[in-house]
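Data availability (excerpt). The following record was deposited with the supplementary files.
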Amino acid sequence: MIQVLIVDDEPKLREGLRSFIDWEAHGYCVVDTASNGNEALEKYQQLRPGLVIADIRMPGMDGLQLIGRLRELDPSLHILILSGYADFEYAKKAIQQRADGYLLKPVDEDELIGYLDTIKSQIDQASQAEQWRLTTREWGRESFIISLLMEHPGDPELLWSRAEELGLAWRSYQVLLLSTVLDEEDYGEKLAAVRNTMTRLLEAKGRGYVFSHHSQIGVLLNDPILPVEWSELYSNIRHVVEGLGIDFSLALGPKVCKIEEVAYSYGVANRLNKNHFFLGNDKLLTEELLVEQTHDGGVSVHELDEQIYYAVEIGNHELVKQLIEQKGTCYISQGLTEEQIKLHFAEMLTALLGRGIKQSPELQQRNREFSEYLSDIYKAWTLGELYEKAQQFLKQMMNELGSKACSKHQEVKMMLELIHRNFNENLKLETLSGILNYNSAYLGKLFKNETGEYFNTYLDKVRIEKAKSLLEEGLKVYQVAERVGYTNVDYFHSKFRKYVGTSPSAYRKTSNS
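Predicted structure:
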């Protein structure tokens, strides 16, 4: 609705004109009236109507003087002049003041409506033109912002000149960047919803301008976001974005003071988002998080795999969690990529499942379920999420294997079970001590006191007993050595002779004769 202010010193004419026609039917609304020019000027400044209808002759400030003052305030204001009699000179002056029309009293309804329709058409066209101007300005601004993200955006002086034209000539700049992965089917709709959120939280508050770049929604900020604001900003954005079912990361580039340095701020934010897998998605990612990882020279990945399997066998959930995270840290220190880490974790879980199936064949029946867990490994958005998926996989294995948590009175029993289940593996007292959370010397003494044998001696005897059974079945000596955990055949020969009193080949020949 176009707002109208009626100005006349005659009360009957003011009120009569208010009810003279159905203003709303023509797109207008009479918001107020005034009895003289001074009052009209005051009310115009308060109400800012789109049309003023004023009597040309009034006490104090007349209609022509009022037009002059109004033109100073708003050159585009629409004005209709009322007059009690035809006066060419007054009409001429009104036209010179760019009045939209000159109406004689008593006002003719059709003539007034004709003027109103013409003025409304002009206002609508001007509004559309202004909207188009603003839209094309926004398009131009966004295109310019995107050009600033490039490594070499152009000549600094030309950039600054263009920035002044587009309202981007600021003292500092900072890029806030939200990155996500969306399915093609709802890509446009969800991206628009994310953009609207960024607009509402930042652009609408004068903090900068929103832009879209591929699957990223960014904000070129005109004032740095302070550390005290990080948590609340992240929470507000996360609340909306996660409600759309979107995995995302949000990064803040450093503040820069030159427009040609915007690319640097964007580059850091982009790099942070690309490292979201390692940095997590529970906070705003900032430059301080980009620290180089170095190899810590700790336990090998293979040893960790062994420890994880034994921890699964004894049902130590907390240890499994610790070892999984230690394995991830080990991979990070080696500089592996997200894809490589996911692949290694999937391979480890597959191998552990294979070993578990040998111990408990019924695990094979849950193969489809375990395959889904493996698929989730590749979908993990962050390293923390990958840890959770891996732990769920191994927890299910523990449930199927019937593992029980180890107590202080079960250490030796657990060790014996592990030996009899895994005698063919490279079992070490040091490995088991880590699994059971005991000093290896103390655990060795505990084992000796309970069994009467040293750990390695007991392990050798279990292996040799199994070797005797395999030799009796007719397997070749090198095959038996490999199956019971000896990689060196000569070493197997010496151990067998020590405990049996004869060579493996002689024992095989005797038992099969």
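Summary of structural features: The longest helix spans residues 109-148.
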